[in-house]
Amino acid sequence: MKYLFMLSAFLLLGSVAWTSQSGNKPTTTTTQAWADSVKKDPETGLAVDTNLPLIKAHCTACHSSKLITQNHFTRTGWVDKIRWMQKYHKLWDLGPSEVAVLDYLEKYYGPSKQTFDGRRKPLEKPSWYKL
Predict the structure, then answer these.
(1) If DSSP states are collapsed to H, E and C, what string results for 4-67?
(2) Tens of pLDDT, residues 27-55
């Protein structure tokens, strides 16, 4: 029992010494570094940009900014969402500001280019067996 206690204490101290030498430096990818360097608006959590007032006026007038931040569409996808909101939720015509709104959405909330996140790829075409 005495030897088991000494062995566990030795392993504990060794792991503490090893982590203190490594400095506990978190690994970051370029995507994470870019995301951390973008300033966020404290009121909405959206990326600060010259077009942010347009986004606040046109988008957050009706819904939460979280609806923007949780989606990452292509430019075509954002256009489709805008048309859908215009058709079914009475979103007004954005007029000439639509280009600036789409530029902002595409720049900050376009498809994310993350590296492998540790999860397996989705099954492409699963073959099921009959029960």
Answers:
(1) HHHHHHHHHHHHHHHHHHHCCCCCCCHHHHHHHHCCECCCCCCECCCCHHHHHHHCCCCCCCHH
(2) 443 444 445 678 999 999 999 999 999 99
Are the beta carbons of 48 and 104 closer than 8 angstroms?
A: no
Question: What distance in Å separates the CA atoms of residue 28 and residue 115, rounded to the nearest whole number?
Answer: 10
88-124 b/e (C-beta count within 10 Å ≥ 16 → b): eeebeebeeeeebbbebbbebbeeeeeeeeeeeeeee
The upper half-sphere exposure of residue 46, i.e. CA atoms within 13 Å in the direction of its Cβ, equals 26
pTM over 0.85: no
